[in-house]
Amino acid sequence: MTRHTSIADLPAAARPRERLQRLGPGRLRDSELLALVIGSGNRTTSSLELARLILKRLGGPCGVRAAAPERLQDIPGVGAALAARITAAMELAGRGAGGPEGRSDAAGTPEPDAIAAGARPSRPGCADAAAGRGPD
C-alpha cells in the first residue's frame, strides 16, 4: 500500500492555504485552488491529490467548470456533498466573471432576462494553461 502525502506533511511554504495567503490566488496552480475548495481529503487521499485527479479526469479547469455533479461523483473520492461544493464554486466563479447569470436584483434573485437567456458565461480559466497556471 502506498502512503499518500498529507497536506500536514508538506512544508508550510508548500501548503495551498499558506501559498494563497503569501502569493495571492493568481499565483496558485489550478490544483491548489481546487484543493482549497475541496477542503480536506480522506485517509487515503489528500485534498491536493484529489484536486489533481479531478483536473486530470476532466481535462483541466474548463472541464471542472462544465462538469455536472453526477460526472464529478464518477471520480473516486468525490461524493454528493463535495460534487455540490465544487459545482457551486464553479458557478459562482462563472457569475463573477460576468455574463447574464452574474446579474441579480438587490435581493440576490436573478433578473428574468438573465434566466431567460439561459446562456452560460464564457469559461474563465480556459486560457490559464497558456498563461502557465496549469493543473500542476
From TrEMBL:
It comes from the Bacteria. Residues 94-136 are annotated as: Disordered. InterPro entries: RuvA_2-like, UPF0758, UPF0758_N. Residues 7-83 form the UPF0758 domain. Transmembrane segments: none annotated. Pfam families: UPF0758_N (PF20582). This is UPF0758 domain-containing protein. It comes from Arthrobacter hankyongi. The lineage of its organism: Bacteria, Bacillati, Actinomycetota, Actinomycetes, Micrococcales.
